[in-house]
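Feature request, filed as a ticket because there's no other form

It would be nice if the structure record came with a short human-readable summary line next to the tokens. Right now we just get the raw output. Example of a typical job, pasted below so the devs can see what we mean:
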Amino acid sequence: MLTQDLRAVARQAMIDEGFSPDLDPAVIAELRKVGKHPDAGEPLRDLRGLLWSSVDNDDTRDLDQIELAAETGGGDWRLCIGVADVDSEVPKGSAVDAHAAAQTTTVYTGAVIFPMIPTELSAGATSLFESAERKSVVVEMIVGADGAVKSAEIYRARVTNKAQLTYSAVAAWLDGGDIAGASRQTSVSVDHKGAILERFATMPELEAQIRLQSKIAAALRKTRLEKGALEIETLEARAVSRDGKVTGIEKIQKNVATDMIEDFMIAANASVAKFLESHSVSSLRRIVRSPERWERIVELAKQYGKMLPSEPD
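Raw output as currently delivered:
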């Protein structure tokens, strides 16, 4: 098995499980019309002049979110998360829409990724690359100094990612580590404009922006943990392959930068869920059922100085 081409093995596994690893001719034809769909609904806000930035994996091509933060002047913060507006290029009932519905999810294997949304969109026309003008769904939140999300507004806008940064470089900088070394090992932007320190030298406002984002993320996380959120450490690994052959296994490293984006996306997802609920719109959610033997869990937590409510919320 180890001598087989894992790409072929993965493709056959997709077929065996009822997925469609190849695009239908109708999907390919629709992809040629990307960018030609007229906007529907209210006019998009123009936020292209703001200092949006992204933090993602070193080799990511499907950039699906960007971030922006500001102080409101009243002790609160304004946190904006811009999500790639794929929907604007995939009309309901279209062949691409049907393909995505049939796939249901992006499948990651050690040798190849089978995307739910064709890469021409997810890693191309709608990806929030640096300097590219894109449509986005923005979740704008007002966050208190205590880390509580006071209010949220959701709208569509035109945006431009001003700085495409990487987890490894931002984490090394936030931790005060060898940022120069991290920059030499990673692609800081699509067009390789240089190390993150050089970016900060030419864009000093970007350095202040990332510091503020880190501060807001810390407040969000602190409040979430105080409300009972569990901080679970899991081991994630991915196969390293060359020419379809697995050459090793590497651990996926979490750091302060991945935590920061995780905190932002949790806050944004919660805000969207509340928005949908307030508008009586049904949505699919993953839920955690009430744990068995809750009283015993409360007793165990008390032994470690943690107070849990008598009933799980």
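Something like this underneath would help us a lot:
The chain has a mean pLDDT of 86.
The radius of gyration is 22 Å.
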